[in-house]
Amino acid sequence: MATSNAVKLEKAGRPAAAPLDTPTDLPADGVAKICEQLNAIIADGFALYLKTKNFHWHVSGPHFRDYHLLLDEQGDQIIAAIDPLAERVRKLGGETLRSISHISKIQTIKDNNAEYVEPGEMLRELMNDNKHIAAAMRKCHELTDDIGDAGTAGLLETTIDDTEKRTWFLFEASRNHDKSGH
Questions:
Q1: Gyration radius from the chain CA atoms
Q2: N or C end of the chain: which has fewer CB within 10 A?
Q3: Where are the domains positioned within the chain?
Q4: Cβ neighbours around 61 below 10 Å, total
Q5: CATH number for the domain whose boundaries are 30-174
Q6: What is the CB neighbour count within 10 angstroms for residue 56?
Q7: Under a CB-based contact definition with an 8 Å cutoff, are residues 92 and 26 in contact?
């Protein structure tokens, strides 16, 4: 039977580290809180990504091409932001999401399984979801300031700015539309 590194270290009189523990000089309780908030943001990112792609696949109407391309571009931006956030959790020594069921347990973005959604409503719903994630990132940023986690703070600042840009584009695209998207 193989002996784990943690058991070997304990036998040698040294404290054993968890297999996925990454050393950091940040306080453990602060790291745990940041990782919890980042994981919630990541879960919401996955939920928003899938909703954005759902609307991208199902948009219709006179502005189909514009909305289809906008939502495809925004989906790419959302999915690209997830990996750096998850890697930050790992850099801090935390564990991140492992499955879709894990995501569904902690996501706060509501799924939309409607058979048909009016184009203007799609844009407004995504705008509000992006605003929701930006607010969660700001809350996490406050915590990073409290414990001196400049790395997470910087990553969040860039991601907040990108999220606000998506919000802005969705707001402008959804202004003064009737249900047909005109």
A1: 20
A2: N
A3: 30-174
A4: 14
A5: 1.20.1260.10
A6: 18
A7: yes
Two structure tokens written together for 69: 């391309």
Helices and strands of the chain, counted as H and E runs: 6, 0
Contact 181, 67 (CB under 8 A): yes
**Cβ–Cβ under 8 Å, residues 67 and 127:** no
What is this structure's pTM? 0.86
The residue behind tokens 């040294």 is 14
The residue type at 54:
N
pLDDT at 1 exceeding the cut of 50: no
Residue whose tokens read 């607010």? 135
The total number of residues written for the chain in this structure: 182
DSSP codes of every residue in 25-57:
SS-HHHHHHHHHHHHHHHHHHHHHHHHHHHHHH
